[in-house]
């Protein structure tokens, strides 16, 4: 399971980075979410309990950090370095969740990216970074991504990286106020012995 040097961890490729989400990110994260409210609304997780709401930023980070300490999640923000901005600004979020050890060695990955940075290869780079880390540093065997059939931008990410389509999951998650179907994609470590980053960068060269 997790040990020294495994978490917290920062991953980078070119100007794209993944680093642990922090309570001090609140103002920047909230501003980014506000500017992307309409962009993210159709894919936003919701609470199926009557009158239930989503956690506050503080509650979310506290819960994610607890899961990270327990070895069941990797809660990252996605950053993109800018030569004139010093500290790389946050441009999205990526969370590896439901990490299962023992005989399963698998996890689920979810992500979102600022609409002004969409289509620039940031999401595929971040997903490749996280998946390679899980396969090679953590020793996981399987990574799964579940996407709404209508979310064409996210579907392009898994297509670019070669995730294998596994089928439709009816009413899989509560999204934007209703139970929503998702299409499931996955990869096992044996399918990508060189990882995802190397072929992804080669495809962009």
From TrEMBL:
UniProt KW keywords: Acyltransferase, Transferase
Annotated transmembrane regions: none
Enzyme class per UniProt: transferase
EC number annotated for this UniProt entry: 2.-.-.-
Domain N-acetyltransferase, chain residue ranges per copy: 16-190
Gene3D superfamilies with a match to the protein in the record: 3.40.630.30
UniProt GO molecular function: transferase activity
The protein's name in its UniProt record: GNAT family protein
Record organism: Sinomonas terricola
Origin organism lineage: Bacteria, Bacillati, Actinomycetota, Actinomycetes, Micrococcales
